Amino acid sequence: MWGFFNNLKMMDDFEKLRCQMVETQILARGISDKKVIDAMLKIPREKFIEEKFYSQAYSDHPLPIGEGQTISQPFIVALMTELLNLTGNEKVLEIGTGSGYQTAILAELSKKVYTVERIPTLFKNAKNILAEMGYKNIFLFNLDGTEGLKEHSPFDRIILTAASDKIPQPLVEQLKESGKLIIPIGDRFSQELLVADKINGKLEIKNYGGVTFVPLIGKFGVSE
Ligand code: SAM
Fold first, then answer.
1. Ligand 1 center from residue 121 Cα (angstroms)
2. Is 122 touching ligand 1 by the criterion CB < 6 Å?
3. Is 74 in the pocket of ligand 1 (CB under 6 A)?
4. CATH 3.40.50.300: does it fit domain 2-211?
5. Cα R_g (the chain), whole angstroms
6. What's the rounded Cα separation, in Å, for the pair 116 and 152?
7. Contact indicator for 173, 202 with CB cutoff of 8 Å
8. pLDDT: is 9 or 60 the higher one?
């Protein structure tokens, strides 16, 4: 099925590691959306991390990106993206740009991605990398994402890559009818990954199990 894997000889080391990552961490754990798999095969994760972590670029865990923050584990990026059920036409709001890696994956699978990061250095790094990679459908903001982006709402999909004890109310209001929001909800140490579908103005929530994320710090999130 994945002819890609037959050409390992011709690839550089990062490409080989990327293929192995997809095979052993993504496909093996049941991710089946071909568009998500293709995006994970395409995006070079090493571009979003410091050189000193290059040997772990495709390892099965988060990595530090500075300021006490992390680039998420590849499987979690793939899982959250698959759960968004993107068709290619959506306007997506991402809260917690971090390194920009998840943002690039989302940009491959949707029409427009609005992404918000609260920490200025991370915002600037992500902005530079994503511009260098040539993305024209990503719009970055250095703000408190718990307030959303009212002027660009409503959104078809909202993804939060930081954890809170509640879903920020402005984001519920900025989610389109029939839209989907994904968020890790819990305390500082462990959370559950929730997917909320907005149906007749109300959220119908499904739980996809335990996860661990950094906190969503802001007016409608948690305090620092
Ligand atoms: N998905 C990202 C990646 O691939 O690199 C990882 C995101 S990291 C786990 C979570 C990010 O959320 C951090 O960069 C953190 O600064 C950011 N964050 C936390 N609270 C925020 C808020 N209120 N608004 C915007 N960003 C926030």
1. 12
2. yes
3. no
4. no
5. 17
6. 12
7. no
8. 60
Q: Is 5 a residue whose pLDDT tops 80?
A: no
Q: Of the candidates 118, 109, 4, 15, which has an alpha carbon nearest to the alpha carbon of residue 57?
A: 15
**Tell me, what amino acid is at 176?**
K
| CA–CA distance, 209 with 218 (Å, rounded to integer) | 24
Share above pLDDT 90 across residues of the chain, in percent, rounded to a whole number: 93
pTM, rounded to two decimals: 0.95
Residue ranges covered by each domain of the chain: 2-211
Q: Ligand 1 mean position to 69 CA, how many Å?
A: 7
The string of pLDDT tens digits covering residues 115-171 is: 999 999 999 999 999 999 999 999 999 999 999 999 999 999 999 999 999 999 999
Q: Give yes or no: 72 in active site.
A: yes
CA 15 to CA 46: how far, in whole Å?
A: 10
Amino acid at 132: E
